[in-house]
Design a protein that fits this description.
heterodimer, A: 226 residues, alpha/beta, Rossmann fold, 6-stranded mixed beta sheet, 4-stranded antiparallel beta sheet, 7 helices, 27% strand, B: 303 residues, alpha+beta, Alpha-Beta Plaits, 2 domains
């Protein structure tokens, strides 16, 4: 499904964010990518959504070599990869429903279809009764659920979660991880980027460890080792 | 269709959110459109006026009464071959009499004519030069040929001084108008560029989310382009309204006095050329606006 082949990313000033990383992620896997700040975790996410292109190496998603992706193809790629972030990235002036619907609106989906799909996704994340609330009227956990609903709206094959529990207390953090595991059970490949030891150890799934841009460990049922 | 409607919706939202900036942008655009349209109108008027003055420059040649028509027509044929002649109009004795009667129908001169009891007028030719400066060549042609002995008198209608003054004034207006238009165009380009840049800046978060969720470029850039088209359209409507009623109403009497007798009324000129002016305004407004914003979009909204 996802294939990194000796991928390096070097930023101007000769700053190496990722050094010859090679790994495969199969369809339907749940993989945690762990490491300390500056280890290259977020670079992996940015490379996967074509926000950055690798300096060396090749990245293949499905049959699609995204290393030399044309900018007109990027929207299509991003509709197949849902992303959630630590800071939720919700529009504060829009309700939860509008935030999720916005993702479909800007993709040219007809209004009738939006009205059908959005409530279904809210049901998956357990917020069907809070769709009309504004982000400020919701807890951090609920906001992250809205972000997950938005990430799932295009029915992506891959869900990238960049420190999704970073702004949450432990109860909400566990709820979000449970939701990600549930989404994974439905067949979506989930890549969780985190430096939360407790969360990684609790999941008991594959763990890829990065340190200063180097892939130092790839365990099938791993633990946070740094 | 859904996409187009949504892009328009987003554009209207942008317009409304940055209302103050939108108003400033439109105002500057109105100034550009107003000055260029007024300049165009004045050009049309000046061209009509100078044409009319040029047309009034001619030499009338009055022949002796006894001269045969063939001889006058022979003179006409010969003079028509000259490079300096644009046209020659032949006026027969009867036509001259009719012209006199029409001109003096309300005064005593008509009674004097009745007392004479016959047609006292001779035949005449009215020569128009190709260019106003060739009037001297016409005089030379008339006085230097074989027909000098049968010419009773010549009458020169020379408006060259008027023409020179008119041209000097319209040239100055043209120059000042062009200068003002260029300055306004530069200001407009800068203001529209900054407005769109500001709009992009205020919506950075929305734009980044649009990118994240896979919005195509047309959804990201389209609203800004539509917004700039809106600026152009609204500005051209306002400029047209200002030109049409208040300004033409106020300026029309002064301009008409200046061009009196030479060109049609400025308001009439405006009406006759309304479509041309509307199209020019919309074209200029939209092109200027889209080009300026396009520059900002290319720079700040790269895919």
């Amino acid at each position: 499904m996802i294939n990194f082949q000796s991928v390096s990313k070097i930023y101007p000033g000769n700053i190496t964010a990722l050094k010859e990383a090679t790994f495969n992620i199969a369809s339907g896997e749940f993989v945690s990518i762990v490491g300390q700040s500056g280890s290259g975790k977020t670079t992996v996410i940015r490379l996967l959504i074509a926000e950055e292109s690798p300096s060396f190496g090749k990245i293949v998603i499905g049959d699609w070599d995204i290393t030399k992706i044309h900018h007109s193809e990027i929207p299509m790629l991003r509709r197949q990869i849902g992303v959630i972030f630590q800071d939720f990235k919700l529009l504060v002036k829009k309700t939860a429903y509008e935030n999720v619907a916005f993702a479909l609106e800007v993709s040219g989906v007809p209004s009738g279809r939006i009205k059908t799909i959005v409530p279904q996704v809210f049901k998956i994340v357990g917020l069907e009764k809070k769709m009309d609330r504004f982000p400020k009227q919701m807890s951090g956990g609920e906001q992250q659920r809205v972000a997950i609903a938005r990430a799932l709206i295009h029915r992506p094959k891959i869900l990238l979660a960049d420190e999704p529990t970073g702004n949450l207390d432990s109860i909400n953090a566990h709820e979000i991880i449970d939701l990600l595991l549930k989404i994974n059970e439905f067949g979506t490949t989930v890549i969780l980027v985190t430096h939360n030891r407790e969360i990684v150890n609790m999941i008991k799934k594959r763990v890829i460890t990065l340190d200063h841009g180097h892939l130092v460990s790839d365990q099938a049922t791993g633990k946070y080792i740094l | 269709m859904t996409a187009i409607l949504r892009i328009i919706k987003f554009a209207l939202k942008n317009f409304w959110r940055n209302l103050a900036l939108s108003i400033v942008t439109i105002t500057i655009l109105v100034l550009v459109l107003f000055s260029t349209s007024f300049l165009l109108l004045l050009n049309i008027l000046a061209r009509t006026a100078t044409g009319a003055v040029e047309n009034k420059i001619d030499v009338s040649v009055f022949f002796e009464e006894r001269v045969a028509e063939e001889k006058v027509l022979a003179a006409k044929n010969e003079w028509e071959k000259s490079e300096a002649v644009k046209s020659i109009e032949y006026i027969s004795k009867d036509q001259a009499l009719e012209l006199f009667k029409t001109k003096h129908k309300d005064d005593d001169a008509i009674k004097a004519l009745e007392e004479v009891g016959r047609n006292p007028f001779g035949q005449s030719l009215v020569l128009k030069p190709k260019t106003p400066d060739q009037i001297a060549d016409l005089e030379k042609l008339i006085n230097g040929g074989d027909y000098k002995s049968v010419i009773k008198q010549t009458s020169l209608s020379d408006n060259r001084n008027d023409l020179a003054k008119l041209k000097a004034v319209t040239d100055n207006i043209h120059r000042i108008g062009l200068g003002a238009s260029i300055i306004f165009v530069i200001i407009a380009v800068l203001v529209i560029h900054s407005t769109i840049k500001m709009t992009i800046y205020t919506q950075q978060q929305e734009i980044s989310i649009m990118r994240l969720v896979g919005a195509s470029n047309i959804f990201i850039q389209g609203p800004f382009i539509v917004e700039s088209i809106l600026y152009g359209l609204i500005a051209s409507l306002i400029a047209m309204a200002i030109l049409f009623f208040p300004l033409l109403g106020m300026v029309s009497p002064f301009v008409d006095k200046f061009f009196e007798g030479y060109a049609e009324n400025i308001f009439q000129s405006f009406l006759n050329n309304a479509w041309l002016i509307i199209l020019l305004q919309i074209f200029l407004g939209v092109i200027l606006s889209v080009a300026s914003s396009g520059f900002a979009i290319r720079k700040h909204l790269k895919a």
